[in-house]
Specification:
about 200 residues; about 70% helix; mainly alpha
Length: about 200
C-alpha cells in the first residue's frame, strides 16, 4: 500500500518539481546572459539586506521587497482560482511560476531598470542579482501555497497586513510600486523620499 502511495505522489508531484527546476535554471541562465551578476556587484553572499537605500538592496537572498513577492503569490493564486477553477492547483502553480519568472526577467531588462531609476525611489537600482531574483520566485511560491492552504479571508488579511506593514516600515510596497511605475504621483514620491538617509 505504501509503495502505491509513493508511486502516486511521485507521479503527481514529480512533474511539478521538475518544472520548478527547469524554470529556475532557464530564468537564472537568461538573467546571467543579460548581464545580471550571480551574487551582486561585490560577489558576496548574504541572507538579508533590510536597508532599501543601500546599494546591496535586491542583491542578497532576501530584503523588504521579498514580502511584495509573497503578495504576488497570494494575488496570482486568487486570480488563477477565479479564472481557472477546474484546473488542478499544481498546474495553476506552474502558471504562476512562469508568470513570476517572466516578470523577473522583464524587471531586470534595461527598460524597466531605467524606469525604476527615473520614477520610483529606487534611484540607484541596478537590477537584481540572480540570487535575489531566484529568491523572489521562491517567495511568490510561498505566497501561492499559503493562499491555497488558508481560508480566503486569512489570505486577504495577510495581503493587507503585508502591504500596510511595508508602507509603514520602508514607505514602499507592491501597490505603491505599481502606481509609481505606471503613473508616478509626486505626492507619493515626496513622502517616500522623506525617509531617505541624508547624503553627506
Amino acid at each position: 500500500m505504501m509503495g502505491k502511495l509513493d508511486t502516486v505522489s511521485l507521479k503527481r508531484y514529480g512533474g511539478i518539481i521538475a518544472a520548478f527546476i527547469v524554470v529556475f535554471a532557464v530564468t537564472g541562465s537568461i538573467e546571467l546572459g543579460m548581464g545580471r551578476s550571480l551574487l551582486g556587484p561585490d560577489g558576496r553572499f548574504g541572507w538579508w539586506e533590510g536597508n532599501i537605500w543601500n546599494s546591496e538592496n535586491s542583491q542578497r537572498f532576501a530584503d523588504p521587497y521579498s514580502f511584495s513577492h509573497m503578495v504576488h503569490g497570494i494575488v496570482l493564486y486568487a486570480l488563477l482560482r477565479l479564472a481557472l477553477p477546474r484546473v488542478p492547483v499544481r498546474l495553476r502553480l506552474l502558471m504562476a511560476l512562469v508568470v513570476e519568472a517572466s516578470w523577473e526577467m522583464f524587471e531586470n531588462s534595461p527598460i524597466i531598470i531605467d524606469r525604476y531609476r527615473a520614477v520610483t525611489i529606487s534611484l540607484g537600482y541596478v537590477g537584481d542579482s540572480v540570487l535575489n531574483s531566484m529568491s523572489d520566485i521562491l517567495m511568490m511560491t510561498i505566497g501561492f501555497l499559503f493562499a491555497f492552504h488558508v481560508k480566503p479571508w486569512i489570505a486577504v488579511a495577510t495581503v493587507i497586513m503585508l502591504e500596510v506593514g511595508c508602507a509603514l516600515w520602508v514607505r514602499d510596497n507592491l501597490t505603491l510600486n505599481i502606481i509609481m511605475l505606471i503613473h508616478p504621483v509626486d505626492a507619493i514620491r515626496h513622502w517616500q523620499m522623506a525617509a531617505a538617509p541624508a547624503m553627506h
